[in-house]
């Protein structure tokens, strides 16, 4: 069997496992979050989330280092250089211990100050809030130190480990709900400690697996000053890109609050929830494919790398479009059934945000490819600066009297421009031609979008707004996207691969 066939089989298996993991976690989370809310009460539940958010504010620091660790471990693995891989892992652990120490200092100083002086917390719940903060700090430290181990698992493409351990985590959180209901202790403090205990156990599982299966995951005291500097520099420029995303995301939320009040913030929050739920499934596919892009670059197999990028972008888009098209048509019906009372602007917000997500999905292989090269300074500086323009341009639009949804149109437009800039910046780094990217991705994607919309639009436009229309439109959307994406959106080799997997899966079912 060829390397390409083996890689395709691995990607398909990993994607399926990650999909199952996400679906199970979503179901458990939907149930447990409702029970926890009812058990703790609105006030305590709000205290838990807002106090935990104080520590989460520092998360972008770790997020940048996480992407750097992922890149260097995957790159060394692709090169097959075990000595380098051991150095990468041990150095990344050292850096993450430093980040953890920084988070502890910030949490115990800035975090405590912010909680006691700036937050609106009932006086009789301050002691409970203090313990929630302490548990949140320890949980964050545990997760930070575990990043190199998780990166090692992803680099080795052992996605089944994530699936199985995540299911264990979901089961434990389900058990927490039962323990919380029957607990005689202060429920908020008890809940915080239980969540911490689960985090510690799950981290032990990941670390134990790595120590047993990956030789490089055993820490060795090494000090490579130049490599330490290289990794932190990479992370620093990645941090600029991450910070740009945080700033324009939270900035838009504050702008909407200033110009329109909290009702519009509620509409945005609902739209973000739906958008995030849809995107989780696409993130699984990309997580399964991203290591292959980095490894092919490390081996110098540029043509294979380009093919993987094209496949990642197209498949990610088709998967997201498959899930999104029914939501785009039946947005109002879905939100009304879910929420009963839908905040004004939610429908238009969600539709524009989904369209922006579709554009952003095509960016993922470009961002992974840039990280694979290690030359991130120019890329992050330019793309981050362009994305930061979303905030001032949105402010001008609102100042001129534009409606609330205009800020999301600005986001869509700037994201589209940034997509073109990404291609231009990557061209000299990986030898990819812009015309090839447009031909292999945008042309196919555009045909799929236009042809897929026709049938469901006719049904939507000619049926009354009923439950029957919702189910018919959803069915036609899925059939339309699936058929058009398969016949027009995929190459001949990709159709053969998909067909072989469907046949193999069918045979497995009927032979049982």
Main sheet makeup: none
How many individual helices?
19
Which radius of gyration do the C-alpha atoms yield?
A: 24 Å
Low-confidence stretches: none
Structural class: mainly alpha
Main location: membrane
InterPro entries: Poly_Biosynth_Transport (IPR050833)
Organism: Marseilla massiliensis
Keywords: Cell membrane, Membrane, Transmembrane, Transmembrane helix
Written account of the structure:
By secondary structure, the protein is mainly α. It has 2 domains: 1-217, no CATH class; 225-433, no CATH class. Helices cover 87% and strands 0% of the residues. The chain has helices spanning 3-40, 42-56, 59-79, 82-117, 126-155, 159-182, 187-213, 225-260, 262-298, 302-329, 331-339, 346-361, 364-373, 377-388, 390-399, 406-430, 434-462, 467-489, 492-510. Helix 3 (59-79) packs parallel to helix 9 (262-298). The longest helix is centred in the first third of the chain and has 38 residues, at 3-40. It starts with a helix and ends with a helix.
Which key features would you list for this structure?
globular, mainly alpha, 2 domains, 512 residues
Describe the secondary-structure layout.
Elements lengths: L2 H38 L1 H15 L2 H21 L2 H36 L8 H30 L3 H24 L4 H27 L11 H36 L1 H37 L3 H28 L1 H9 L6 H16 L2 H10 L3 H12 L1 H10 L6 H25 L3 H29 L4 H23 L2 H19 L2
Helix pairs in contact: 1-2, 1-6, 1-9, 2-5, 3-4, 3-5, 3-8, 3-9, 4-5, 4-8, 5-7, 6-7, 8-9, 8-14, 8-15, 9-10, 9-12, 9-13, 10-12, 10-13, 10-17, 10-18, 12-16, 13-16, 14-16, 15-16, 17-18
Q: Would you summarize the structure shown here?
A:
Helix content is 87%, strand content 0%. With 512 residues, the protein is mainly α.
């Amino acid at each position: 069997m060829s390397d390409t066939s083996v890689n395709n089989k691995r990607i398909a298996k990993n994607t399926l496992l990650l999909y199952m993991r996400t679906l199970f976690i979503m179901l458990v989370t939907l149930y447990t979050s409702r029970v926890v809310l009812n058990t703790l009460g609105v006030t305590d539940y709000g205290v838990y989330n807002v106090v935990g958010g104080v520590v989460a504010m520092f998360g972008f620091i770790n997020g940048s280092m996480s992407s750097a660790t992922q890149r260097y471990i995957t790159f060394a693995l692709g090169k097959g250089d075990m000595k380098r891989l051991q150095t990468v892992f041990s150095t990344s652990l050292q850096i993450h211990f430093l980040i953890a120490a920084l988070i502890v200092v910030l949490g115990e100083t800035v975090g405590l100050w912010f909680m006691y002086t700036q937050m609106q917390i009932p006086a009789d719940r301050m002691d409970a809030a203090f313990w929630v903060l302490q548990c949140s700090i320890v949980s964050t430290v545990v997760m930070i130190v575990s990043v190199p181990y998780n990166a090692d698992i992803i680099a080795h493409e052992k996605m089944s480990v994530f699936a199985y351990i995540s299911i264990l985590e979901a089961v434990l959180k389900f058990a927490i709900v039962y323990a919380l209901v029957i607990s005689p202790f202060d429920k908020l403090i008890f809940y915080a400690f239980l969540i911490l205990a689960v985090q510690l156990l799950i981290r032990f599982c990941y670390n134990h697996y790595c120590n047993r299966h990956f030789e490089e995951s055993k820490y060795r005291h090494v000090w490579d000053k130049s490599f330490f500097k290289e990794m932190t520099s990479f992370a620093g420029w990645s941090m600029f890109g991450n910070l740009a995303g945080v700033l324009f995301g939270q900035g838009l939320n504050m702008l909407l609050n200033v110009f329109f009040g909290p009702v519009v913030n509620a509409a945005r929050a609902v739209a973000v929830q739906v958008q995030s739920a849809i995107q989780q499934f696409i993130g699984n596919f990309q997580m399964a494919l991203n290591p292959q892009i980095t490894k092919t670059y490390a081996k110098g197999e540029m043509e294979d790398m380009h093919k993987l990028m094209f496949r990642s972008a197209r498949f990610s888009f088709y998967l997201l479009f498959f899930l999104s098209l029914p939501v785009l048509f039946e947005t109002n019906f879905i939100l009304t059934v879910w929420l009963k009372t839908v905040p004004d602007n939610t429908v238009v917000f969600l539709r524009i945000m989904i369209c922006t997500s579709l554009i952003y999905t095509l960016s993922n292989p470009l961002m992974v490819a840039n990280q694979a090269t290690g030359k991130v300074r120019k890329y992050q500086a330019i793309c981050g600066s362009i994305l930061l323009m979303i905030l001032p341009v949105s402010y001008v639009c609102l100042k001129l009297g534009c409606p609330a949804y205009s800020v999301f149109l600005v986001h869509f437009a700037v994201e589209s421009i940034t997509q073109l800039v990404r291609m231009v910046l990557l061209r000299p780094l990986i030898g990819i031609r812009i015309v090839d990217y447009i031909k292999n991705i945008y042309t196919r994607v555009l045909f799929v979008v236009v042809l897929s919309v026709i049938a469901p639009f006719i049904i939507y436009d000619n049926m009354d707004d009923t439950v029957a229309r919702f189910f018919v439109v959803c069915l036609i959307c899925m059939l339309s996207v699936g058929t058009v994406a398969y016949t027009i959106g995929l190459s001949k080799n990709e159709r053969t691969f998909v067909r072989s997997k469907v046949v193999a899966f069918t045979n497995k079912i009927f032979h049982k």
